[in-house]
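INTERNAL AUDIT FORM
Audit reference: QA-55
Scope: verify that the stored structure record matches its stored sequence.
Auditor: D.O.
Record contents follow.
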Amino acid sequence: AFMNGANDVANSYATSVAARTLTMPQVGFLSMITEFVGAVALGNRVTSTIKNGIISIDRFEGNPGSLMLAMASAEFGSASWLAIATSIGYPVSTTQTIVGALIGVGIAADSQVTWEWDDGSVSQVAASWAIAPLLAACFAAVIFSTVKFAILERQDSFSKGMLAIPFYLAFTCAILALFMVIEAPAAPSLEEFGPGKAVGIVLGVFFGVLAIAYIFVRPYLIRRLVKGDARVKFYHIPLGPLLLKENPPLYFPAKADGVVVIDYYENAYSSKNDGSIENQSDSEKDVGVSTSLEKANPLVVPTARQRIVTPEERFLAPTKHLPVVHPSRLFGLTKYFLFQGVTRDCVSHEDPRLQATHARCKIYDNRTEHLFTYTQ
């Protein structure tokens, strides 16, 4: 479970960290909840496939000790490979790892491996390894293309983003609803449940979230990103249309001089925002904007970026001169082992190859970039 978490959390949250939607400490806390709840609440079918579909356990009938040893060997083998892959940065599939380990155990124990095309068989699992990435690539290409060419590449990207973000929020929630309908533990298969019911639920969620986005989220975005009101926080979203008033009734407001939008292009090699804020145009009036250019474009104030202290410098360097068995050095080693993963990320990480990647990135309006963090 430790190695699964080390690799799966990276697969689940890496894009959110890279987009600066979440920080590493936030990911560390959220992953403890989401990985556990996901495995318990929505992992029933995968668990059943791993347990019964890969190898036949009839070979171990009447010999539970051998079955326990076989499963423990599979776990140890998969955990060992995950530890090696994670240490060198390979985002391997934990499903492929445990399936391969079970096949090896089945062969070693002379147990029947389910090769033929059947529900949960090795053939179907292996086919999914090719089909799933291809389908994901197609969906991702379509979504990214619409965002890039219909919004980011347009002259007034922020205005286009303000018009489109409610639909993206609704689309995201509709996909999640479809996943929960199909993968819920007590839910029947899609054939038994009925495609009509599934489509009805998905469309209901889509239009329901779309209405919520227009009534509550859009006024929040206008207040914060267009009018540049740093006092408004996410917990003010329930105020909805009241946020469009000149002086909305804000409860627990944030500091008025706070940062409205962070610099999404800030990294370990940059000290200022190299992108320019786009000029307000007539199309911004379509989202309810009638303010001045200064208010419509809250600038990211260029400030010198402080050098990021690496985990080695934070936890190991202060006690480097002490003997290895010294309590302070052991405590530093313990902190490094436990926290080095949440104290570095792709934003603060200094690496020439990463710098080259950032240098090739095209720079867009920070406010437009910020809009899509809400879908994440």
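Auditor finding: record pair retrieved intact. The CA atoms of residues 287 and 302 lie 28 Å apart.
Action required: none
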